[in-house]
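Q: What would this chain look like folded?
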Amino acid sequence: MKRAMKGLAGAAVVASVVAACAGSGGVYSVGPESAGFRMEFDRLAGSGTIPTTVIGNPFAVEKPAFDAAVADAVHGQYIGPEATFDTKTGPETLVGGRIVFWFDPKFDPSIHKICADPATLGHAPEPGRVAVAMALCVGSTSKVQFAGTLDGVTGPTDKRFRQMLADTTWSLSSTRDPMMDSDQCTGSNC
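A: My prediction, written as C-alpha cells:
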C-alpha cells in the first residue's frame, strides 16, 4: 500500500510539472539531428552573414519590422564567429545554408517541410500563444530542428519572446567554446 501511495504521489508531481511546462511554453528538439550540424552552423556564421528566412508574423506589426526584431533577438545568441542574421535574403538561399524561423507553423507532417519553399508553408495561429519552429537548412534538407512555444506574449520586443528565440538559436551552436582555456582551448587566441 505504501509503495502504491508513493507511486501516486510521484505521478502527481510529474503531472503538475508537465502541466506547468505546457502552460508556459518552452524550447525542445523536434527533428533528427544530422551529424555535423554544428559545423554547418559555424560555416554559416564564419561567412559573417547568416541567411535567415522568417515565415509568418504572429504580431500586429509590419513584416519587415518583425523580421528585423527576430534578427536582433538572435544576434550574438550563440558561440561562434560574429555574424549578422540577414532576413533580406532571396530565393538563392534555398540552395545554400540558412536558418529558418517558422512562426505559428502547422504542427503536423508539414513541420518536416520547414526547408521547403517558404511560399508553400502554412500557418495555424493559436490565440494567446506564439509557436516557432526553427531549422538549420542546407538546400531542402533540415540538419536539425528546434521548436518553442510561449503563452501571453505582447509583441516582438517582449523579453520572454526574445529569450525564446535566443534559446532556440543557442541550441544550434557549439556546446563548448574553442577559445576558452577551461574548454581545452584549441584556437589561436588561447
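The first strand starts at residue 25 and ends at 29.
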